[in-house]
Amino acid sequence: MFRSRAKEEKAPAADKALVTDSKQPRHPEAPKGRPTPKRSQAQSQRRSVANTSMTRKEAARRQREERRAALERQRQALASGDERYLPVRDKGPVRRFARDFVDSRFNIAEWFLPMAVVILVLSMVQVPALQNTALLLWLIVIVLIVLDSVVSGFRLKKRLNERFPAENKRGAVAYALMRSLQMRRLRLPKPQVKRGERP
Predict the structure, then answer these.
(1) Number of DSSP helices (H) and strands (E) in the chain, helices first
(2) What digits encode the pLDDT tens for the residues 1-51?
(3) How is residue 126 annotated by DSSP?
């Protein structure tokens, strides 16, 4: 009785749209026949559809394989010096020059570990003369390493400023000095220059 004429005209159109074949486009005024989902439900449905192609176990297996492949590439790069797959701390021309600078020199610091073992053995012998000799050797080694490291650090800093004036050189000297403490054959990335060769 109180219904408007417009609603009465819309109702038959909606009924017709429901009866029509599903292949035909739905009438814009016809009801959907289902409630509109909440945004959170719609997003979770989209995620579930996107992730149905790979199970959790398969995704974990693929991540393990990718990690293993990346580690293998990195290991080969550390042996060959390939810049593309080196760790971030070893990448860049500044770090490469610092490595070459250290590897081309004879560094007293690289003999620190062997000398420390010898001094330790001498200090354990219960002979006062040998213990005093070990203590003296220990002091001499420490002083020589400090002096050699200071000289190397100044020379490297000067060469870096000459060769790479616009590059970021932060931490390169400390990186080189830490490398000089390692024995040459144990250094990673492997040395790419010979002793005495100018980098």
Answers:
(1) 7, 0
(2) 455 555 444 444 444 444 444 455 666 665 666 667 677 776 776 665 555
(3) S
Residue 89 to residues 94, 170, 175, Cα–Cα distance (Å): 11, 11, 9
Distance in angstroms (rounded) separating the CA atoms of residues 14 and 34: 14
Average pLDDT, the chain: 82
The 8-class DSSP code of residue 196 comes to T
Q: Helix or strand or coil: residue 29?
A: coil
Angstrom distance (rounded) from CA 123 to CA 128: 9
* 165 to 97, 158, 162, 181: CA distances (angstroms): 13, 10, 6, 27
- Helices marked H in 20-127: 39-51, 56-80, 93-103, 112-124
For the entire predicted model, the pTM comes to: 0.66
Give mean pLDDT in consecutive 10-residue pieces for the chain, a chain of 199 residues: 50 45 57 69 64 75 91 87 87 94 93 90 88 91 95 96 93 95 92 88
Task: Give Cα 150 to chain centroid, integer Å.
Answer: 30
Is the separation of the CB atoms in 84 and 96 below 8 Å?
no
